[in-house]
Design a protein that fits this description.
heterodimer; A: alpha+beta; 3-methyladenine DNA Glycosylase II, Chain A, domain 3; Alpha-Beta Plaits; 2 domains; two-stranded antiparallel sheet; two-stranded antiparallel ribbon; 8 strands; about 35% helix; about 10% strand; B: alpha/beta; Rossmann fold; 6-stranded mixed beta sheet; 4-stranded antiparallel beta sheet; 17 strands
Chain lengths: ~280, ~450
Amino acid sequence: MSIAVIAIIAVGILGALLGIIIGVVAKVFAVEIDERIERVGELLPGANCGGCGYAGCADFAKAVVSEAASPDQCPVCSKEDIVTIADYLGISAEEKEKRVALVRCSGDIPNTVRSLYNGVRDCRSAVLVAGGAKGCDYGCLGFGSCAEACPFGAIEMRKGLAVVHKDLCVGCENCVAACPKNLIIMVPEAATTHVYCNSPEKGAAKRAVCKTACIACRKCVKASGEEDHMLVDGFLIRTNYENPPGPELVEAAACPTTALRVDSAHSADAYQGASK
Amino acid sequence: MSDKPRKFKGGVHPDDSKALSSHKAIQEAPLLDCYKVIMHQNIGAPPELVVKKGDVVKKGALLAKAGGFVSVPLHAPTSGTVKSIDKIPGPTGISVPCIEITADGEDEWASPFEPIADWKNAEPAVLKQRVWDAGIVGMGGAGFPAHVKLSPPEGKKIDTLILNGAECEPYLTADHRLMLEQAEEVVLGAAILARILGLKTAVIGVENNKPDAIEAMNKVAGKHNIQVQALPVNYPQGAEKQLIYAITGREVPVGKLPMDVGCVVQNVASAVAVVDAVVKGIPSIERVTTVTGKPLVNPGNWKFRIGTPISKALELAGGITEQPAKLLLGGPMMGIAQSSLNVTVMKNTSGILLISNDEVSQYTSEPCIRCGRCVDCCPMQILPATISQAVENKRFDWAEKLNVMACIECGSCSYSCPSHRPLNQQFKRAKVEIQAGLRKKG
C-alpha cells in the first residue's frame, strides 16, 4: 500500500471518531434554547441601538420572552411589527405614543457669533475649551457628537447645526446623552411646531450673539389665544407638549426671529434668521 | 534639604519671552469708574452674597462671605455703589455672576479687620483665621483657598513650607517683579505662614533664569531664617509636585496632596497677600498681573484691583500694534483662550497675554508616529501617546488604568508632539468623563 492510501485511511478513521464524540457530546450536553427567543430576535430590527434599555436586540428578545419587558418598549419597531411579536407570543402590547428627538437650537454658522476653535472636532471636547467656540453658552456647538451617536443617520450636520430628520428618528435617545449642552429633548412625534432656542438669557443678550434666538416677545403666546399652546419660561418661550400647536401658529405668530418653526420646513432648511 | 536641587524627569524648554516685561517695575493701575467683581474666584464652593443692588460699599467691605470651608469671602475693590448683580463672560467662557461696582472716586477705606502688628506672638489659629477672612487664594493660577492648605487634618505632620517663586510659565514676570521689589514682604509672608504651620523655617524656590530675584531674596532671607533655593530652568518647574520633588526629593503619590508628604506650597504673591492681611489689615483686593505679548506697545507689570476689565488692562499697556491671534488669561502653556474683552481680573489672574499671528500656527492633527517625545517630556511619567489612543477610541476605562488622572495638564506633551496632536485636550476630556462616571456610581 502506498503511503498516500495509509494517510487517507488514518485521517478518515480519526475524523469519524472525532465526529462520533462531537455527536454524542452535542446530544448529552445540549443547551436548550427557547426557540421563541430566536424568532422574536428575528422580528426585532437588529440595530442594537439600546433605546429599549437592554444591551441589544438579543438581550431585549430574551427579556420579552421571559415577560420582563413588553415588545412596545422597542422604539424602532413599527406598530405592525409590535403586533406581530405580541401575537406570536400570545400577549397583548400597548400602543405607545412615539417620541422623536428635537435639537432646541437654530443657530447655524451664518446666524451666530463664533470664535476661532482649533481643537478636537467633538462637542464633548470642545465644551472643555471655554464652553465651546459659540457666542451663545446654550446653543449647538455643531461638531456632531449627536450625529455620531445616532445609529440611524437621523441627524444631519448642516452649517454647524444639528438638524433631526423626523422620518428617520426612531427615538432611541442615544443623542440625548451625547449632547454636552443638554439641548436634545424627546417630543411627541405628532407635535410639529417647536421653539428652536434653549437660552434662558435676556433677549438683548441673546440677540447680540444669535439672529434666530427666541427673544420672548410673546407673539406666539398671543397668537395661540385662549389655547395653552405656548409656555413662558423666564426669557424663553417653550412649546407645551401636553397641548402642542399646529403648524398654522407659525404663520399666525410671525415670529420676528424665526425661532418658532415647523419641523419639516426646518429640516428642509427653509428658514433664514431675522435680517436685523 | 540638599544644596543641589533635584531635577525632575521630563519637562520642556519653551522660549520664555520674559524679557518683554521682566525689566518693567510694577505700576499701580489708575482708579477706574467701574469694577466687575466675578463672584466665584476660588476652587471649591462659591461665596454667598451679602450685598444687594444699590448698596453703598467702602473699599475693603465684605461683598460675599465664604460659602463653606473650601471657599473664601470677597471684598470690594474700591468705594462706591453696587450697580448690579448680573452675568458677564467668565474666564472659562461660560457666563458667571458678577458684582458690578460704580466707583465714587473717593477710594475710602472701611477696613474689615484690625492689623495684627505683633504677629510673632499671635496664636497660629488667629493668623489662619485672618488668612481666611482676607479671602486669600493661591495666586499662581489655581485659586485654591490658602487657609485650606494651612489646615492639615489630624495626624498629618507638615515639616516643610515651600514658597513657589519658580514662575516657569513663559512670558509671565509678575512674581519675578514681586520678589525683586517686595523682597521683604515675601520673606515676611513666608515667616507668617511658617508660624501658622508651627514651623521655624521655609524654603523659597526660584528658577535660575531670575538671578536678580534670587539675589534680592538672599539679601533679606536671613532676617526670618528663610532659605532660598535656586532651581534649574525646566517647564513645569513651578508645578506643585515637581517643585516638591526638586526641593525635598519627595514624590507626591497619584491622587494624594502635598500634605500627604508633609509639604505645603504657597505662591509668593499669596505670601505678600498674607502680609497685607495680617500686618496691614488689607483683604485680598488687588494683585500684580503681567500684561504682555508681542502685539502690545508697552508690555509691563501692573497692580490691578480685582474686577478690572482686561480691555482696560490692555489700554494701560499702550494698546496693540497688530491684530493679535489669541488672548490668553495666564501663560501660553496653561492659560485659557478668551473670546471676550469683558472678562475681568480675578485673584488668580497671573497674566494677560496677547499672542501674535506669527507665533501661532493652525495645524491639523495627524496620526501618532510613536516617536515617544511626549513620554520623554511628561513630568508625571504617564504615557500620553497611549492614553491619547484610548481617548480617541472613547475607552475612558483604559485611559483611567493608564493613570490619566495623574495628568497635571501642563501641556508639555502637546508642545513637543511633532504630529500636533491635541493631547492635553484629550486628557482633559478623559478626566471629565471619568469624574462624571465616578459621580454616577456615587
